[in-house]
Amino acid sequence: MSINLQTLCQDVCALSKEVGVFIKNEGEKFSSMKVEVKGKNDFVSYVDKTSEKRIVEKLALLLPEAGFIAEEGTSTKKGETYNWVIDPLDGTTNFIHGIPCFAISIALMRNEELILGVIYEINFDECFYAWEGSKAYLNGKEITVTKTAKLADSLLATGFPYYDYSRMDEYIELFKYFMKHTHGLRRLGSAATDLAYVACGRFEGFYEYSLQPWDVAAGAFIVQQAGGKVTDFKGEENYIFGKEIVAGNSACFDEFLDVVKKHFN
Ligand code: IPD
Ligand code: CA
Ligand code: CA
Question: Over 90: is that where the pLDDT of 165 sits?
């Protein structure tokens, strides 16, 4: 059976919005007493878990043969060909502190390839999405990365290391370089949103290490469909499972990646 990816993408957008309403409502009455600690600076609550359960249940109906790579481990089913990659709440630290930047991130892989991505940023009601062969969209309008050709004219986003401090020195030196040589850096606290903002041209680029597949899969795909480039810190393809990512517009990507490479390799 061939899959209609456009229809599937619309269904995943609708599902994300539905679960987004649940997350928003819970956020309004959320108490930090309900937070569990998974690891150093790694938090979770019933909101992440319930959201993931709802997403997994619905996706299992939409594409029964697919498996799951889902942050909270709701399903560990492995799909032979298709696998969903899910972060039910990206930006949990923001969520528990009442800071309005958190998103749902859902991607679909066919074997090793990304073929669909949806990121729903809940607070601004912004749904970013793309499917194989499509353009990238934000709430129905086509989006593209910027054409800014120089790092000196760019605004970048990153995420700070919060448990793996082994590469901190390199990270800080790179940070200093970008402080001096770009329009500045932002740390939103949601990698999925950072990537969505690269795709729609709000940022020229994004980089971070120690990320998981569910943080980056949907965003990396949407950036590419929006005309951008994505690699790991070596300039290679291992950015979904390799725990490091550089994403940016095509015009200044080479300059951006060169600087990252010089600091990290
Ligand atoms: C986190 C966010 C954050 C990034 C962290 C991620 P979570 O995801 O994407 O921006 O810096 O590395 O773990 O835990 O909120 O789903
Ligand atoms: Ca995440
Ligand atoms: Ca999460």
Answer: no
User: Distance between CA 32 and CA 8 in Å, rounded?
Assistant: 36
Amino acid making up residue 259: V
The rounded Å distance from CA 42 to ligand 2 centre is 10
User: Which ligand lies nearest the alpha carbon of 72?
Assistant: 3
Using DSSP, state whether 1 is helix, strand or coil: coil
The ligand that comes nearest to the alpha carbon of residue 164 is 1
pLDDT given for residue 1 in this prediction: 65
In order of 10, 71, 143, 185, the CA distances from 106 in angstroms are: 12, 11, 18, 26
Distance between CA atoms of 226 and 135, rounded to whole angstroms? 6
Strand residue runs (E) in the chain: 36-39, 42-44, 67-70, 82-90, 103-110, 113-121, 126-131, 136-138, 141-143, 155-158, 184-186, 205-209, 229-231, 244-248
Q: Which of 42-51, 67-76, 204-213 has the lowest mean pLDDT?
A: 42-51
Q: Which of 12, 68, 72 is nearest to 36 (CA)?
A: 72
Domain topology for 5-143: Fructose-1,6-Bisphosphatase; Chain A, domain 1 (3.30.540)
Taking 70 as the threshold, does the pLDDT of residue 57 lie above it? Answer: yes
CATH number of 151-264: 3.40.190.80
Question: What tokens appear for 15 in the block?
Answer: 């599902």
- Residue range 76-125, pLDDT digits in tens: 999 999 999 999 999 999 999 999 999 999 999 999 999 999 999 999 99
Asked if pLDDT for residue 50 goes beyond 80, the answer is: yes
* Domain extents in the chain: 5-143, 151-264
Nearest to 190 by CA among 95, 121, 102: 102
Q: What spacing in Å lies between the alpha carbon of 86 and ligand 3's midpoint?
A: 9
- Residue whose Cα lies nearest atom 16 of ligand 1: it is 90
